[in-house]
């Protein structure tokens, strides 16, 4: 079995790395705050830099917040590029710019290594369960070689196309997720202000054509007002910025995406950058002067 490396052990990266370890993968790991003790106890080798991870691994997974973070991991001081060798594969599972992804891939390939982008969907719950959707851009042969490792972290693993295609797919995913959160928020807010129990409305809608995973999970968060982050607003804002900048470059209008971004901006203005993205509904509540579940006169 290939030896793996994992860089970035946050809300998503830590459980993804843990699933590799559970499946018997030899794993070297690095994160700026230090590799968690439970991963070390499970067999991870703690490294002091991305370059050190590259010295231990055949396939190196990267899971960090944004485009500049990926660039720093790859090409910064003690970055992966300092230690990459022919035959290795870098797999960026972060959600970043498709254009930057293609540039990073070219620079990595100049060093003889291969590169794939493989952003994910499914949140912390999916990361822990090993049930993530993984959207991959890269060469078919490289994909086939890494697929057994992907299968330890996800249940729906798809090669979308060439490098960068995975990131485009993830941007499209985040557009749909944001717009659906907004729609669910509007619907439950309307029901609540009309004096109808929003939890019962959600329950009824789950049995009909409006049913969705977001209505199920995020709708419940809205009715129970549990906004502890599974996926932070600030990260979804980053993804929508990628969508809007990519759309501008392509001459595509994304009006609903822009509206969702403004609602996220309103949440951030009220101290909510670390709220779960389902808390977009709080911006709608401000506009309606009504909180979901609040009794009406």
Automatic annotation (TrEMBL):
Gene3D superfamilies in the record: N-(1-d-carboxylethyl)-l-norvaline Dehydrogenase, domain 2 (1.10.1040.10), NAD(P)-binding Rossmann-like Domain (3.40.50.720)
Name of a matching Pfam family: NAD_binding_11
GO MF annotations, alphabetized: 2-hydroxy-3-oxopropionate reductase activity; NAD binding; NADP binding
Keyword flag Metal-binding: no
Top-rank taxon: Bacteria
Catalytic residue list: 170
Domain 3-hydroxyisobutyrate dehydrogenase-like NAD-binding: 164-284
Domain 6-phosphogluconate dehydrogenase NADP-binding, chain residue ranges per copy: 4-161
InterPro entries for this protein: 3-OH-isobutyrate_DH-rel_CS (IPR002204), 6-PGluconate_DH-like_C_sf (IPR008927), 6PGD_dom2 (IPR013328), 6PGDH_NADP-bd (IPR006115), HIBADH-like_NADP-bd (IPR029154), HIBADH-related (IPR015815), NAD(P)-bd_dom_sf (IPR036291), Tartro_sem_red (IPR006398)
Keywords: NAD, Oxidoreductase
E.C. number: 1.1.1.60
Oxidoreductase keyword on record: yes
PROSITE patterns: 3_HYDROXYISOBUT_DH
GO biological process, one term: organic acid catabolic process
PANTHER family associated with the record: 3-HYDROXYISOBUTYRATE DEHYDROGENASE-LIKE 1, MITOCHONDRIAL-RELATED
Family of this protein: Belongs to the HIBADH-related family.
NCBIfam families listed in its UniProt record: tartro_sem_red
Protein name per its UniProtKB record: 2-hydroxy-3-oxopropionate reductase
Name of encoding gene: glxR_5
